[in-house]
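Summary of Year 1 activities. Much of the first year was spent building the evaluation harness for sequence design. The harness presents a backbone, in tokenized form, and records the residue chosen at every position. We chose the following record to illustrate the format because it has been used consistently in internal testing since the harness was completed.
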């Protein structure tokens, strides 16, 4: 029998599926629950165990990892008779890797403590490719002892793992991350349209730009998306729209001005309103093309 902690994984989407599979490859016992049967079939094919409910998934787990889209989903899976807090064993550790509001994380940790359950918030950056390659950046909020306990698991999922402060701090840093990513993608998209309209070889231009000060992880990861107009979702516009709402609201609460972020948040919202919410966030290029008079 393995001495590794038993893991329950709730939420097997674009990110959750490859992340849970990396834990299975590392020798962890993973029992998963999600709403889509095909995702459960994928988990079992990878060597995991599927559960028919949250309660079944978490009842024997030492660590419960959650990866769902937003605060309402975290609350839905955590609270109530069928939720994690009512069915996980005392002393269990919840590692919430969803991207949600900092306050939701603070409230979850407080309510879990009343049940003898510990929580850290551990949102990630790196997208689908980072999840598959296990090179995610993981920003954590919570107690040092709980972080230390979770660290071997997190090191199986990512490369840069940092405790940023108390509960909610991971989510605050993730909000800042999403601000930077959105603004960066928007700048790249504007550059692509400018370069193409100027008659420059786009691939050559992006290669040389990425080798200088304008280079970035965003440009490295999204360059082919721009070149091929391939907007298959790695991280959907719908989710980035949610995240831009989190960062603008949190910034308002602390009195931080985000003038460029506010503009990009509106551009993300406009793209979503035009029916592109299911596309990858690199599809911000489509919004710039429309504004530039191109047929999309």
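For this record, the design step produced the sequence shown next.
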């Amino acid at each position: 029998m393995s001495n590794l902690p038993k893991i329950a994984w709730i939420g097997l989407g674009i990110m959750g599926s490859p992340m849970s599979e990396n834990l299975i490859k590392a020798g962890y016992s993973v029992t998963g629950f999600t709403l889509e049967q095909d995702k459960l079939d994928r988990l079992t094919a990878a060597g995991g165990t599927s559960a028919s409910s949250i309660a079944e998934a978490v009842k024997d787990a030492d660590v419960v990892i959650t990866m769902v889209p937003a605060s309402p989903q975290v609350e839905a899976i955590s609270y109530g008779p069928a939720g994690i807090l009512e069915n996980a064993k005392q002393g269990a550790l919840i590692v919430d890797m969803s991207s949600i509001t900092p306050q939701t994380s603070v409230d979850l940790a407080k309510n879990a403590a009343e049940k003898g359950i510990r929580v850290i918030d551990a949102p990630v950056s790196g997208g689908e490719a980072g999840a598959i390659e296990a090179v995610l950046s993981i920003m954590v909020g919570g107690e040092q002892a709980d972080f230390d306990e979770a660290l071997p698991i997190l090191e199986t999922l990512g490369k840069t793992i940092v405790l940023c402060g108390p509960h909610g701090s991971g989510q605050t840093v993730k909000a800042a991350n999403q601000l930077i990513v959105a603004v960066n993608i928007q700048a790249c998209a504007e550059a692509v349209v400018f370069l193409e309209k100027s008659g420059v070889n786009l691939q050559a231009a992006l290669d040389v730009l990425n080798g200088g000060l304008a280079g970035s992880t965003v440009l490295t990861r999204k360059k082919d998306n721009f070149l091929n107009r391939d907007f298959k979702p790695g991280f959907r516009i719908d989710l980035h729209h949610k995240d831009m709402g989190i960062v603008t609201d949190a910034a308002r609460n602390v009195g931080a001005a985000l003038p460029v972020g506010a503009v990009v948040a509106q551009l993300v919202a406009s793209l979503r309103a035009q029916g592109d919410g299911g596309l990858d966030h690199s599809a911000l290029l489509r919004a710039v093309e429309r504004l530039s008079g191109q047929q999309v």
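The longest strand covers residues 158-165. Quantitative recovery figures across the full test set are reported in Table 2.
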